[in-house]
Amino acid sequence: MLSFVLYMRWLSILLIPSLLLGDYTLNRAELCLGPSYSYLWRQKKGGSELKGSLYGGEFRFDRLKRYSWYLGGTASYRAGILHSHPSLRSRYSDFFSEGRFGYTFQQKCCPNFSFTPFVGGGYILTRNNFLNPSPLPIHFKTDYPFASAGFISRIYPFSCFEMGLDLNARLPIDPNCEVTKDPDHDDMSLRIGEKVSYQISLPLIYSMTPSWSLQLRPQYEQRLYGHHPNFPFDFIETKEQFFSLMLLLQWRI
């Protein structure tokens, strides 16, 4: 009985903003900024594995309005040290930017639900520089533009709280990997096979006031880099998996 009373008290505290925020009709632009944490598992087919934590930040903009055009963008940076048994160690960094354009559909009857399909494009730049005690101090730089498509979905059980499922699929355009500081070979550029990558996010958003919210954003991302013949070495198929969590302060304009 006591646990039920405590639960009802906490629920009433969480729902107080619902008395202040009005209806559920989408008509807002949002700026989000906050820190991010990612755990990266990088696997090269038939070769090494690297794992480690990345720390950084993310900036997002989304313009969402019921039955209207959608505009959005994201920029993020993260970096950290990756390790592999027994002696591989590298400094990894990742820069990501994307612009999106779509259309928002929203039903006003309960439960309130919105769906925003979009298309877009952007740019990715990663660096993976091996450090001592790695056998070779080789540096890898991978960069490419990409085309993207996906959707943003939201459900609004209360006016102070919303949750969603976001999916983003990306096709790299002419990706390549620059290899430098190899003591046995000259600098070279390797073509990479184009494979679709994807990202899934589960945003949880709590509105503190009509203008300010907190967004907790668990996210999984898989990037695939396909095998491609090159000279003097082929690019080996590589898979990167990011398990991420962002805490974003959200300002509604």
Keywords:
253 residues; Lipocalin; 14-stranded antiparallel beta sheet; 14 strands; elongated
Q: Could you walk me through the main structural features you see in this protein, from its secondary elements to its overall organization?
A:
This protein has one helix at residues 2-15, and strands at residues 27-44, 49-65, 68-84, 88-107, 112-130, 139-158, 161-172, 176-180, 188-191, 193-194, 197-201, 204-207, 212-226, 238-252. By secondary structure, the protein is mainly beta. The chain has one domain (30-252): Beta Barrel (Lipocalin), CATH 2.40.128.100. The longest helix has 14 residues, at 2-15. Residues 13-22 have low confidence and may be disordered.
> What structural class do helix, strand and pairing data support?
mainly beta
CATH class: Mainly Beta
The domain count comes to 1
- Radius of gyration over alpha carbons? 22 Å
> For the residues shown, what is the average pLDDT?
87
Number of strands: 14
The low-confidence runs, each spanning 5 or more residues with pLDDT under 50, are 13-22
Q: CATH homologous superfamily, by name?
A: OPCA outer membrane adhesin/invasin
Strand content: over 45%
Order of helices and strands: HEEEEEEEEEEEEEE
The fold-level CATH name is Lipocalin
Layout of strands and helices, then pairs:
Blueprint: H1 2-15, E1 27-44, E2 49-65, E3 68-84, E4 88-107, E5 112-130, E6 139-158, E7 161-172, E8 176-180, E9 188-191, E10 193-194, E11 197-201, E12 204-207, E13 212-226, E14 238-252
Antiparallel strand pairs: 1-2, 1-14, 2-3, 3-4, 4-5, 5-6, 6-7, 6-8, 7-11, 7-12, 8-9, 10-13, 11-13, 12-13, 13-14
